[in-house]
Every structure is written in C-alpha cells, then in structure tokens.
User: What shape does this take?
Amino acid sequence: MNHNETAGTPCTLTARDGTALQARVFEPVGLTRDAVLLAGGLGIPQRFYASFATWLAARGYRVMTFDLRGMGLSRPPGMRTLRGLDADMLTWARQDFSAAVHALSDRSGGEPIALIGHSLGMHHAAMTEAATQDRLRVAVSVAAGSGYWRDWAAPSRRLAPLMLHLAGPLLTPLLGYFPGRRLRMVGDLPGPAARQWMRWCRHPEFAWGAQPELVRDSLRSARFPIQAFSFTDDDAMTEACTRKLLAAMPHAPAVVQVLSPGDVGMQDIGHVGAFRRVAETLLWPRMALALD
Assistant: This one.
C-alpha cells in the first residue's frame, strides 16, 4: 500500500438513498483557513489527489476527497465488476457529490465550502441540486469542460468514434457496464452512467442539449463564482470546451485562466498533470490562490 492509499483520515459518508461512500479528511496543520472538497475526474480514484490534499492541509485548509459509488474505495469488497450497478451521471452528482458537500460543510459549522473540481468533478457542481450548490462558496474548475467529442483536443478526438460509436454501444449492453479499464478508455463505468455520458458526448450541446429536462434547472441555479483553469496541452478538454461549460451556467460568474506548461515552468500538464507532485511548486500555489 503506497503513501497515497493511507494519507488522510478515513470516514464514511451516507448518500440520501442510504449508499455508503468512502472519503478521507485531511485536517489542517496550524491555522485553519477554509474547507475544500476535492471532486475528482471520471474514473480517477481519490487516492490520486492525496498529495495535493496533503499539501493544502499543510497550508491550513481542511480537505476532503471521496470516491463515487462503484469507484475506488466506494466499490463494495465483493463487487468484482460494475455489472448491475444502477448509477448514472446524475446519481453521482445529486446523491454522492451532494453527500460529500453537505458532510464537509456540516463538519465546518455549516459554513459554505470551496470546491476544486477536476474535470467531471466540476460537472457535479453544475448538475447537482440548488441546496447543495448553495453550500459552495467558490468553485475552482481544473481541466473541466463540455464533453461534446468534436470539441475535444486531437488525441481524445481521434479515439472518440471508437469509444462513443463502437466500443461503448456494443460492450455496455453486452457486459452490463463499460469495461474502460481493459480498453484503456476512462476506466470502468456503471452501465447507466456510461450510456448517459456517451449520449451527452455525442450531442453538440452536451448534457444540456441531450437531456435539457434533466439538467437545465441545475445549470440555472448555480450561482457560485468559478475560477477556471484550462491548459493548452490538455489532451481532452480544450479552452472551447471549458468556455462552453461555463456558458451553460448563466448565473455563475466565471474567470478563465488559460495556461501553457511553459507559463508555469512545467514540461507538460495535460488533463491530469495539475495534480501530480511535479506541479507542487509551479502550479499548486496558483490553484490555492484561486480558492481565496
């Protein structure tokens, strides 16, 4: 077990439907500044964010990471595959993400908290219900954007037809889940989440075009300020994707920082590099500044 597996204090969250979710809390060292929820990207377990969470805690923030149902530590021990798991994208946003926001806010005296949403993690804030959005003081969006595949950066765009039009539609009904891990595409996803996500990604207006009746109210009720980071070498989300997502939340004031690796003295950032240890002295201080 590596350091990232054991960092933070384990705690169990309970979603409104009774599902148990595994989280970790990184208590601040010295001065307490704010509570920060770290919501991760699609198919990325919470342990990936442990180094950044530890770093934030050392600077006075109380930080929580968590795994969505079926993912990482929130997958029950006996569950070998995600076959039969009844969870779609909005279950994750309105049950699991919501449980994490309320638990961390309650732990912090009911005060609104800050969010760092990596990719899908930012979608959760956009698509959860108003009562959860009201608990967010600020959202720092990292490498997040609308998922329409033709807007993606070239490396992901080249793979998109294979995933969205062939492998996904064929394998998901056959297996009862999307076996992304074996295909080296995003990771394993529950069947309902995979079908919904692929439907959204095939629509030029993403979720708010494919299923407006399900997401429009949430997008309109989001009123928290957003500090968004977009990276020029992101192999998935382009600046256009980021701006499209922000435009879908008309009442959430947003500022976008577009950074190239050279701007911060890094060799590359890509879609996940902002949370790797190499970014500690170069990018993490900028992300922490955005929390304030």
Notes: The chain is about 40% helix and 20% strand. The longest strand covers residues 20-26. Strands lie at 9-14, 20-26, 34-39, 61-66, 113-118, 136-142, 177-179, 188-190, 226-231, 254-259. The chain has a mean pLDDT of 95.
